[in-house]
Amino acid sequence: MPTTCVLGAQWGDEGKGRVVDLLADTADLVVRYQGGSNAGHTVIFAGETYRLHLIPSGILRPGKTCVMAHGVVLDIPTLFSEIEELRARGHEIGDNLVVSDRAHVVMPWHKRLDQTREQAAGARAHGTTGRGIGPCYADKVSYRGIRVGDLFDAEWLRERIDQNIAEKNHLLVEVYGQEPLDADAIHAEYLEFATRLKPYVRDAVALLHDAIDEGKQVLFEGGQGVLLDVDLGSYPYVTGSNSCALGVPSGTGIPPRALDRVIGVAKAYMTRVGTGPFPTEGDAAVDERLREAGHEFGTTTGRPRRCGWFDAVLARYSVRSNGIDEMVIVKLDVLSGFDELLVCVGYDTPEGRTDIVPATSPGLDRVKPIYESLPGFTEDVTGARTRDDLPENAQRFIAFLEQQIGVPISMVSVGPSREQIVDLRGE
Ligand code: GDP
Ligand code: IMO
Ligand code: MG
Question: 25-60 pLDDT, tens per residue?
Fold first, then answer.
């Protein structure tokens, strides 16, 4: 593996946390390279459920170094509560946790602006997680951001806060009719945060370069998914970062050629939280059934996820734009009991059949999925551990997906727990 990236090949919540947890077994370092506490990664083992928003999923395995690299936007209170929860549950957090001094900090105005804009948008809301992600990344690229390293110089921090507060309070008060934020209080609070954060703060670029030079196994854990990527996703209904494989070099400082392998994670169907196009979104009955069977409610916000059939056009797009070498298919167990399983193999448009993903959201809204129907299976597959344990129709479904997406399916997840996996890698 030396350096491997695990990323979501759909609209997030594909089960990246559970796949990273599996692969972390043989990794030395596990690294988040983008996103922030908008992510919610679930890991279940030994009857315990963990929901991680910022800390890499590798933290649950002793002896792994977990890094939040500079592509991550850091919500410090969320990080502290995650550290406390993990400690309370018996996990050691110390030298094994690293926060990049170059990471941007999600400041109180980012969350307030995110939530205020969503409220003001009413029915046209984007459906963000309200964690301040978009405003924080916007400030990063408009040179207003505050980085972790800035927290350790009281005077410089004050200057950065004052510059921001003048502008943000104008927006909050004059445009949105909200209460202003207090620069003194924020300055004092973040100086205190800095003291508590200090033990974890390192130059993560140098740390990763050294790790790679020493031949360590580095696992990069994507947040969100390719279809939420700010460039490749269904813009504007995306997140603020590059959740695609390209986010690894830019978000960590490793050279692009240092990434050896890209593993995509996709559900055996599709889900999406928030607004935006979704060609295979099921009719009400299918949507409801998948949501119930798959417990499709957001890990971060608890919102019901929209559900639909597997879209092979979008999967191929994710494979090609990320150089995905292998795909892990999760939640096969959820499809048990459907008479037929539909897979979208192409799009019908007024201009004819296409395999190209339209650039605009209205364009993707207009396509009509062309479906291939496969026979379903009724057996409970949650106990399957080899291909032969799977019913014939489930095997046929997996083989069809593999042929459609064009890369090997290396693992099939049949339940949320660590051991519920059909590992096809040795075949
Ligand atoms: P992530 O954000 O990509 O890490 O995914 P989430 O944790 O937000 O959502 C995935 C959900 O599916 C979690 O509740 C997992 O426990 C659950 N899950 C993962 N793999 C499987 C599976 O194979 N079968 C079932 N039934 N649930 C799964
Ligand atoms: P994980 O890592 C699913 C979605 C939001 C919204 C859009 C923008 O758990 O897969 P943001 O708060 O990022 O500005 O919201 O992106 N979104 C996710 N959907 N899984 C996630 O993360 C998501 N992170 C953001 O619902 O549509
Ligand atoms: Mg999630």
Answer: 999 999 999 999 999 999 999 999 999 999 999 999
Contacts of 385 (CB under 8 A, 6+ apart): 419, 421, 422, 423
Our answer on whether the CB atom of 274 is closer than 6 Å to any ligand 2 atom is: yes
- Choosing from 221, 246, 263, the residue where a domain stops is 263
Q: What is the pTM of this model?
A: 0.97
Tens of pLDDT, residues 246-288: 999 999 999 999 999 999 999 999 999 989 999 999 888 999 9
Whether 13 and 58 share a structural domain: yes
CATH of the domain at 352: 3.90.170.10
Give the tens place of pLDDT for each residue, 149-195. Answer: 999 999 999 999 999 999 999 999 999 999 999 999 999 999 999 99
Instruction: Please tell me the total count of domains within the chain.
Output: 3
The range of the structural domain enclosing residue 282 comes to 266-423
- Report the separation in Å between the CA atom of 105 and the middle of ligand 2, taken as the mean of its atom positions: 18
| Domain boundary residue, one of 140, 161, 196 | 196
Q: Please check whether residues 173 and 296 belong to one and the same domain.
A: no
118 CA to centre of ligand 2 in angstroms? 14
Q: Which residue, by CA, sits nearest to atom 10 of ligand 1?
A: 15
Active-site residue, 295 included: no
CB of 15 closer than 6 angstroms to any ligand 2 atom: no
Nearest CA to ligand 1 atom 17: 416
